[in-house]
Amino acid sequence: MKQSSTNTILIGKGDNPVELQLRYGNRHGLIAGATGTGKTVSLMMLAENFSRQGVPVFVTDIKGDISGLAAAGKVSDKLLARADKIGISNFSPQANPCVFWDLLGQQGHPIRTTVSEMGPTLLARMLGLNDIQSSILDIVFALADSRGLLLLDLDDLKALLTLVSKERKTISAEYGLVSAQSLAAIQRSLMSLKRDGGEVFFGEPALELSDIMGVDEQNHGLINILAADKLVLTPNLYASFILWLLSELYENLPEVGDADKPKLAFFIDEAHLLFEDSPDHLLKRIEQIMRLIRSKGVGVYFCSQFPDDIPDAILGQLGNRIQHALRAYTPRDQKSVRAAAETFVVNPKLDITAVISSLAVGEALVSTLQDNGVPSMVEQTLVSPPRCRMGPLTLTERNACRAQSPIGNHYDIAINRESAYERLNQLEQLEKAPDAKPPIEKADTKKSTPKKTSSTPQKDSEDEQSNWFSELLFGTKRRQGLVQSFSKQAARAVGSKFGKQILRGILGSISGKSGK
User: Fold this and answer.
1) Nearest residue to 4 via CA among 44, 36, 45
2) Dist. CA 107–CA 140, nearest whole Å
3) Strand runs (DSSP E) across 87-229, as ranges?
4) Does residue 477 or residue 27 have the better pLDDT?
């Protein structure tokens, strides 16, 4: 049997070799099945094959065992027999180039973003706010924009909430009613978010997308593994992070159409968490991203127990499917089995409903997109084994891998530049001492005899105004200027179908509505 070519991934063998065409790797996918049926192994097999074809990968690691992608597996007679049966020649263990990330900064490089980049829509979901509280969060962001205050970390947001509380009557008259009870609820939620790790996630340096889309010296795509075993215990934080990252990819990557292979393969474990308790307008945004992000070269692969964990509008966009066994013990399970069977192109040789319940571990029903993007007829498939270790790394191995990371320590040291928290503290100090003058920076601390100058008080005043205006526009070493701030926001809108509107993001705009 021939090996899969360089433009395909060999998933396994049914009556014939079952392959995924790389040019349709951006058409998204689904890996489903009950616990212990082989979902994780299929995920690892796809991830390392994308990597070997030069496609970077981002994958969430819920249980810790996906970290085994960074180590070579062990050869056994059983494994060799399986590879031979599928038609894989010269099967040998192989490690993959991996980079470890962790929102909490414990098991990998910290991933950070700013409060402003997250935007009020996703932040409200992360905080678990109701509609009224979410609308107040919109006002907080609008106030920050109107007063030129940067929202970088949670201290900045806390300071803004305190400001809104102090000026509640004035702000209510201008923006709409702000109740003390709703403000208090937001502040309590903010405290919970800080306790759950949000204090580490929000800040700088913020993640640069280029750092998760690299290749190694052999032109193998880097596999970015997000440690999520603790993160998943706070589902709102986990889901909001995933949606934010998808939003960032959509907004910042250029259009590539249907390329020879994806620019990034994105695997989301426990995908049902993205959709639980999500309001309708957010679900519509996710659906919109899924429709459009494939033109940016990003293929998203959802991993969950049941296909109906994914909303129908999104499930219909998942062209490449690997369905492991489902056990029909309850009426809900039986309904899920029937729903899963109905999503496949019928194979007259298979009773799909019966087969789903009887698949062995390592077997799956597989359908992929073929010529012209048409789904293939479903086949009962013996899934190819991964070459990496099918088990977690030890702490020592993980630390060694992190020490050799191509990212270096760029993200390991947090930066805290001047933003809303510092600015509001300065204003508060000036209010307490209204006669005090702001400190003037001295270029030289050495004592010297004052030189005579021909400048006049009016000239000095003009110079001070000029310096102040220059700092406002172009900033200082500690503070971002308006030019930098607006140019960064404008860059986000370039190439967007939403025209010339400057938005925080497709999931982070103040209004929560797309532009037209």
Assistant:
1) 45
2) 34
3) 98-102, 109-110, 223-227
4) 27
Alpha helices in 103-167 (DSSP H): 115-127, 131-146, 154-166
pLDDT of residue 473: 57
Q: What DSSP designation does 367 have?
A: E
Rounded distance, CA 356 to CA 323, Å?
8
pLDDT at 278: 78
**What sign for the dihedral angle of Cα 287, 289, 293, 298?**
negative
Please state, in angstroms and rounded to a whole number, the distance separating the CA atoms of residues 292 and 250: 8
Of 281, 5, 22, nearest to 138 (Cα)?
Answer: 281
Per-residue pLDDT reduced to its tens digit, 299-342: 999 999 989 899 999 999 999 999 999 987 788 778 888 888 88
d(CA 395, CA 401): 10
Residue 36's identity, in one-letter code, is G
Greatest CA span in the chain, whole angstroms?
99
> What is the C-alpha to C-alpha distance for residues 18 and 486, in angstroms, rounded to an integer?
50
Six token digits for residue 487: 């140019």
Chain position carrying tokens 């009613």:
177
- Dihedral, 313, 317, 318, 319 alpha carbons, nearest 10: 140
> Whole-model pTM?
0.82
DSSP assigned state of 371: G
